[in-house]
Design brief:
- This protein has 97 residues and is mostly helical.
- It folds into 2 domains: 5-50, no CATH class; 55-96, no CATH class.
- Helix content is 63%, strand content 0%.
- The chain has helices at 5-16, 18-26, 38-50, 55-64, 73-85, 93-96.
- The longest helix has 13 residues, at 38-50.
- The chain is elongated and about 50 Å long.
- It starts with a helix and ends with a helix.
- The mean pLDDT is 87.
Length: 97
Protein backbone atom coordinates (compact mmCIF):
# COMPACT_ATOMS: atom_id res chain seq x y z
CA UNK A 1 0.00 0.00 0.00
CA UNK A 2 1.38 3.40 -0.98
CA UNK A 3 1.52 6.09 1.65
CA UNK A 4 0.50 9.53 0.46
CA UNK A 5 3.01 12.36 0.27
CA UNK A 6 1.82 14.29 3.31
CA UNK A 7 1.88 11.21 5.51
CA UNK A 8 5.43 10.35 4.40
CA UNK A 9 6.53 13.90 5.21
CA UNK A 10 4.85 13.71 8.63
CA UNK A 11 6.55 10.39 9.44
CA UNK A 12 9.91 11.80 8.36
CA UNK A 13 9.51 14.90 10.53
CA UNK A 14 8.51 12.74 13.48
CA UNK A 15 11.64 10.61 13.07
CA UNK A 16 14.15 13.47 12.77
CA UNK A 17 13.44 14.78 16.26
CA UNK A 18 12.45 18.02 17.96
CA UNK A 19 15.46 20.15 16.96
CA UNK A 20 15.11 19.30 13.28
CA UNK A 21 11.36 19.84 13.46
CA UNK A 22 11.99 23.33 14.88
CA UNK A 23 14.35 24.04 11.97
CA UNK A 24 11.69 22.82 9.55
CA UNK A 25 9.10 25.15 11.05
CA UNK A 26 11.46 28.10 10.54
CA UNK A 27 12.23 27.24 6.90
CA UNK A 28 10.68 29.19 4.03
CA UNK A 29 9.01 27.15 1.28
CA UNK A 30 7.83 28.58 -2.03
CA UNK A 31 5.05 27.68 -2.68
CA UNK A 32 3.86 26.85 0.83
CA UNK A 33 2.48 23.41 -0.15
CA UNK A 34 6.10 22.24 -0.60
CA UNK A 35 6.30 22.27 3.21
CA UNK A 36 4.28 19.00 3.18
CA UNK A 37 6.18 17.22 0.37
CA UNK A 38 9.00 14.93 1.43
CA UNK A 39 11.32 15.55 -1.52
CA UNK A 40 11.19 19.32 -0.95
CA UNK A 41 11.71 18.88 2.79
CA UNK A 42 14.80 16.73 2.23
CA UNK A 43 16.21 19.23 -0.29
CA UNK A 44 15.66 22.06 2.21
CA UNK A 45 17.44 20.11 4.96
CA UNK A 46 20.35 19.29 2.63
CA UNK A 47 20.72 22.99 1.79
CA UNK A 48 20.50 23.88 5.49
CA UNK A 49 23.00 21.25 6.68
CA UNK A 50 25.50 21.21 3.85
CA UNK A 51 25.40 24.84 2.80
CA UNK A 52 27.49 26.29 0.03
CA UNK A 53 30.50 24.44 -1.33
CA UNK A 54 33.83 26.26 -1.52
CA UNK A 55 34.87 25.19 -5.02
CA UNK A 56 38.40 26.56 -4.68
CA UNK A 57 39.01 24.50 -1.55
CA UNK A 58 37.46 21.38 -3.11
CA UNK A 59 39.80 21.71 -6.10
CA UNK A 60 42.75 22.20 -3.74
CA UNK A 61 41.85 18.97 -1.91
CA UNK A 62 41.58 17.13 -5.23
CA UNK A 63 44.94 18.44 -6.46
CA UNK A 64 46.67 17.47 -3.19
CA UNK A 65 45.38 13.88 -3.33
CA UNK A 66 48.18 11.45 -4.16
CA UNK A 67 48.17 7.69 -4.35
CA UNK A 68 49.45 6.21 -1.09
CA UNK A 69 52.02 3.40 -0.94
CA UNK A 70 50.18 0.10 -1.19
CA UNK A 71 46.91 1.75 -2.28
CA UNK A 72 45.31 0.00 -5.21
CA UNK A 73 44.95 2.17 -8.30
CA UNK A 74 41.23 1.46 -8.70
CA UNK A 75 40.65 2.60 -5.10
CA UNK A 76 42.67 5.76 -5.72
CA UNK A 77 40.83 6.50 -8.98
CA UNK A 78 37.45 5.98 -7.32
CA UNK A 79 38.42 8.47 -4.59
CA UNK A 80 39.64 11.01 -7.17
CA UNK A 81 36.36 10.71 -9.05
CA UNK A 82 34.43 11.23 -5.81
CA UNK A 83 36.49 14.34 -5.01
CA UNK A 84 36.03 15.69 -8.55
CA UNK A 85 32.21 15.63 -8.19
CA UNK A 86 32.30 18.60 -5.78
CA UNK A 87 34.75 20.59 -7.94
CA UNK A 88 32.13 21.69 -10.50
CA UNK A 89 34.29 20.87 -13.53
CA UNK A 90 31.11 20.37 -15.63
CA UNK A 91 31.94 19.05 -19.12
CA UNK A 92 35.71 18.81 -18.53
CA UNK A 93 35.58 16.62 -15.40
CA UNK A 94 36.94 13.53 -17.14
CA UNK A 95 39.86 15.42 -18.70
CA UNK A 96 40.69 17.03 -15.34
CA UNK A 97 40.89 13.60 -13.71
Amino acid sequence: MLINTEKRAAVFLTCVGNDAYDVHRAMKFEPEEHRKQLDHIITAFENFCIGAVNITYERYVLNKRVQENGERFDTFLCEVRRLAKSCKFAGVEESMI
